[in-house]
Amino acid sequence: MLGQAATVYENDTYHLNYIDVPVAFRASWNDLFAEAGPQLGYLLTAKSTTPAGTLNSRDAFRTFDFGYLLGVGYQPKKGGLGVGGRYNAGFTSVYKDPIDGTAPPEVHNGVFQVYLTYSAQKYHKYKKSKGVR
Known about the structure:
- The structure is a single chain.
- By secondary structure, the chain is mainly beta.
- The chain has one domain (2-119).
- It contains no helices and eight strands.
- Helix content is 0%, strand content 59%.
- The termini are far apart.
- β4 (32-50) and β5 (53-56) form a beta hairpin.
- It has strands spanning 2-9, 12-22, 25-29, 32-50, 53-56, 64-74, 80-90, 110-119.
């Protein structure tokens, strides 16, 4: 899943593009479900927009972001269309420590997602064979 975050710091705007790999553990109650688990994000691109123009700023950010996800949703047991909502957040700040020793700002990734799912209905049952013919 791809994610994008934008933040403003000292009149600059940063656009960070991540690919996230979530591992969701799900508990279901009839047609409702809750999910939670860890996720690992990989920074694809980072660009900063300043009054002077757009710059590649990938070196200023951590390459990996480890975080968590929490979500709820509805998925009919008989199959069909379902809907869910999920919040993903990072545990650590996205900024690397600057070379000059100053403290970077504490900025964490956080994304709320709404999604649709489709589950195919079971249209036949498994039949045991009665022997070899």
